[in-house]
Design brief:
With 288 residues, the protein is an alpha+beta fold. Helix content is 34%, strand content 30%. Helix 6 packs antiparallel against helix 7. It is globular, with a radius of gyration of 19 Å. Bound molecules: adenosine-5'-triphosphate.
Length: 288
């Protein structure tokens, strides 16, 4: 196999709670992760020339070892003394620095692809062990679906699939670094925590209304006071019939859960026409 085409799927968090901070700066989290059908198209091609080469449709993204996908390929090439090389092409659709784990999804796709392409024989668990060295969300991006993530995000428990629903994603034009958001959270006294157990209960009962009602993200307490547009997008989603609306990850992407595609599209139209966000997508939850 000299060429592989892969879909690197993005994620949202149905719930995100932070339990504490570790000595090394990492945080202990309790998150409910959900894959959505918005993806970066990844093409991996085997090359005679050794090393990793990459290209992307986004001019501002690095295509050297600062790209997580390149680092993923190099990790396996070095470990297994592979003498050939790879070319990685990334057609990115997942918004960047948006709380949707785009970089981690690309890295996971490349770990999966290089393992297959060179017949390395690594199991899913072995890939996850390598993935966490690249980023806390990479193991989840390998597993995908509806999952409870604990520890720094690498302790994964698969859950019953989230019931079918439509997801409106809107990224306001704000640039935030995940590190900065967590640092600001550390400086706050957190009194309100999202009801993660309520979400788990809703999923176990296949009750999307219950899930939506319990959705919550502790990082909104940092982001909404600073960037009110996040709160405005949430309100617009609820006004247009979303069962629930929340910021994903460290933001700034906001998502709404809708029963119908039509309602989600109407929400998208209003968010765009009010100028709240330009990067807007209607998609659905994805479980394999
Ligand atoms: P998370 O939800 O895990 O916090 P994120 O959505 O906030 O992730 P990403 O889009 O994964 O953020 O990437 C953030 C940073 O990582 C960007 O500054 C970007 O330059 C860098 N990066 C490295 N590799 C990639 C990649 N393949 N795709 C996107 N960004 C990448």
């Amino acid at each position: 196999m000299d060429k592989m085409e892969l879909k690197a799927l993005g994620k949202i968090n149905l719930g995100l709670d932070v339990l504490g901070r570790r000595e090394n700066g990492y945080h202990d989290v309790r998150m409910v992760m959900q894959t959505v059908y918005l993806y970066d198209q990844i093409v991996i091609t085997k090359t005679k020339q050794p090393g990793v080469k990459a290209e992307t449709n986004l001019f501002y993204l690095p295509v050297d070892e600062n790209n997580l996908a390149c680092r993923a390929a190099k990790m396996l090439i070095d470990e297994f003394n592979i003498t050939e090389g790879v070319h990685i092409s990334m057609d990115k659709k997942i918004p960047v620095s948006a709380g949707m784990a785009g970089g981690s999804a690309d890295a996971a796709a490349v770990l999966f692809g290089v393992n297959k392409m060179f017949g390395l024989g690594l199991s899913m668990t072995e890939l996850e062990e390598r993935g966490v060295k690249l980023g806390a969300d990479v193991p989840y991006c390998l597993m995908r679906g509806t999952v409870l993530a604990e520890g720094i995000g690498e302790k994964l428990t698969p859950l019953l699939a989230c019931p079918k629903c439509f997801v409106l994603l809107a990224k306001p034009p704000i640039s935030v670094s995940t590190k900065m958001v967590y640092e600001k959270l550390d400086a706050l006294e957190i009194t309100e925590h999202p009801d993660i157990d309520g979400i788990l209960n809703g999923l176990a009962r296949k009750n999307i209304h219950k899930v939506a009602e319990c959705m919550g993200n502790v990082l909104e307490q940092v982001m909404i006071p600073e960037y009110p547009v996040i709160g405005e997008i949430k309100e617009m989603m609820l006004e247009t019939g979303a069962l629930g609306a929340m910021m994903s990850g460290s933001g700034p992407t906001v998502f709404g859960i809708y029963k119908t595609r039509g309602a989600a599209k109407e929400g998208a139209r209003k968010i765009k026409s009010r100028g709240l966000a330009r990067q807007v997508h209607v998609t659905n939850v994805h479980n394999v």
